[in-house]
Design goal:
20 strands; eight-stranded mixed sheet; FAD/NAD(P)-binding domain; alpha+beta; binds flavin-adenine dinucleotide; 404 residues
């Protein structure tokens, strides 16, 4: 007998977990499949990956009862400064100007994953298959059959709707024959934590440098999160240099606004590419999160965009349940896909254009991009529009993105 579920979510990253939690109060049976054994460690010392959580994502995480558990370790971003090193353009955004307590937050990733895991463990309508890999999908008529491979053998489960949250190289997306645009930026993001002698842990900086954009982000622990997306030709040199030499390189570009760098954490490199699925839905199938779009980390928006996929998809599931429609019917899923189109495309395109403009050394392009930064700084409506995009505010907003 094939075990049947209304919804099977493939992937136990942040987006897959949020999707499972978003189904908690709906009358559906849910399965989640994750290939990696889940082991989240929050007993880290200095080196740990951090993530920027947009204002709207905080709202969503509140609704999922995740935020109360991570709020004490989330550093609020009161101001965001964007500048082009060595040029005149800069934009300064303040939470107070937008009438909010913070533009966003920065948090150590294990805290977020741990809080999600704790919530998932108490979810009554959820069955977890971990570690299991989805290796095949087959049309079962009124459902899809998924083949799961694990150490204990192979099993088959059925779903009215398969949600692929299986990351940027999504094998499910490929299995469904969905083409994806793939652009290798030939850049690698170096991520590390830093300590400054006089950090202001309320301000986030995004600074475009000749080697690539860097960001300095507040953390509650007194450290700063740091990410420098470097052109690949610099990577070997920057990874190999001593901590002191690396700190000096950072200071040469970032300046001494936070004083000296007193500690440099372990550096890790992440290759950067744009991967965008040409379609996000098929009958009984939808891709979300990085499986739908994996974007440059320059604006810290990849996870945030994926969480908004979750919020919108929940609306589709809810309305299909209310009207007793088939959860996997293509017309309903197409309505979901159209609802996500504007937010998704504007961020994917906007970030891609910004990355290309800020790595272009032509003097005309440098003048143009600095004029745009200046205009954004001086025209209140333009700055507010940019702040709202960074915060993830959109209209109409799905229920999970609206404060109670
Ligand atoms: C350097 C860097 C910095 C970033 N900073 C930010 C930031 O500050 N803010 C932000 O919003 N975003 C940021 N991002 C982007 C963010 O990390 C991603 O968008 C987000 O983590 C994607 O989550 P996901 O759940 O969609 O995918 P993933 O985290 O990739 O999860 C996919 C899961 O699916 C599982 N899986 C895959 N295939 C199968 C299968 N066949 N069967 C079962 N399981 C499977 C995998 O094991 C994995 O656990 C950053 C990215 C980078 C590279």
């Amino acid at each position: 007998m094939t075990e049947q579920f209304d919804i099977v979510i493939v992937g136990g990253g942040v987006v897959g977990n949020a999707m499972a939690l978003a189904c908690r109060d709906l009358s559906v049976s849910v399965a989640q499949v994750e290939v990696k054994q889940v082991s989240v460690r929050t007993d880290f010392d200095y080196d740990v990956r951090t993530i920027g959580v947009a204002y709207t994502s905080r709202t969503l995480l509140k609704h999922l009862n995740v935020w109360p558990h991570v709020a004490p370790v989330a550093a609020p971003i009161s101001s965001l400064h964007i500048s082009d090193a060595g040029h005149f353009g800069k934009v300064r955004m303040h939470a107070s100007e937008q009438g909010v307590d913070a533009l966003g937050f920065v948090i150590e990733m294990p805290y977020l994953l741990q809080a999600m895991q704790n919530e998932l463990q108490t979810q009554e309508n959820l069955t977890t298959f971990c570690p299991y890999q989805v290796s095949a999908l087959a049309d079962g008529g009124d459902h899809t059959e998924l083949t799961l491979d694990g150490e204990q053998g192979t099993k088959t489960i059925g779903a009215k709707l398969v949600i692929a949250a299986d990351g940027q190289f999504s094998s499910l997306r490929q299995h469904e024959g969905i083409e994806a645009q793939h652009w290798d930026y030939e850049q690698t993001a170096i991520v590390a934590n830093l300590s400054f002698s006089h950090a202001d842990n309320r301000v986030a900086f995004e600074r475009f440098t000749p080697e690539g954009p860097l960001a300095v982000l507040p953390l509650t622990s007194g450290r700063s999160g740091f990410i420098w997306t470097l052109e690949n030709r610099y990577i070997d040199e920057f990874m190999a240099m001593s901590d002191d030499a690396f700190a000096q390189k950072v200071l040469d570009r970032f300046g001494y606004r936070f004083g000296e760098i007193t500690r440099v954490g372990k550096r890790r490199g992440y290759p950067v590419a744009l991967i965008k699925a040409e379609e996000t839905v098929k009958p009984r199938f939808v891709v979300i999160g990085n499986a739908a779009q994996s974007i440059h980390p320059i604006a810290a928006q990849g996870m945030n965009l994926g969480l908004r996929d979750v919020a919108q998809l929940r609306e589709h599931i809810k309305s299909a349940l209310q009207s007793k429609a088939d959860l996997g019917a293509l017309d309903g899923l197409s309505t979901y896909s159209r609802a996500r189109q504007r937010d998704r495309m504007s961020l994917v395109r906007g970030i891609d254009v910004a990355v290309r403009a800020f790595r272009n050394p032509l003097s005309g392009v440098i003048k143009a991009r600095n004029s745009i930064l200046l205009a954004l700084e001086l025209i209140p409506g333009a700055k507010s529009h940019l702040a709202k995009r960074a915060m993830g505010l959109q209209t109409p907003a799905p229920e999970l993105c609206v404060e109670d």
